[in-house]
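This protein record is not my work; I was only asked to verify it. Would you go through it and say whether the fold makes sense for this chain? Here is the record exactly as it was handed to me.
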Amino acid sequence: MAGYYELTRRGGHYHFNLKADNNQVILSSETYESRAGALNGIGSCQENSPHDDRYDRLTARDGSPYFNLKARNGQVIGTSEMYSSTQARENGIASCKTNGPTKDIRDKT
């Protein structure tokens, strides 16, 4: 079973998570003003997630590794959780590459 996108609405704003088949969040989006904007973000994630050069491997102030997935134009599409090690972050990126192209969108709005 492949991963999926979960589209939600909170307080009038839209947001999506890319989730693995075990329901664990791989990537979280920014907040969007419209449903169409969030769906556009999902489309960008589907397109860009397979490309390694679209990932920024970062370190938080507390030393926790994480990553951002960026579009071709450099705009951040989504951000990962904080990981316990750089290897765990690489595993998260690999999962994003595998699950990101999925067409399964679960609309919870």
The mean pLDDT is 96. Residues 4-107 form a domain with the PH-domain like fold (CATH 2.30.29.80).
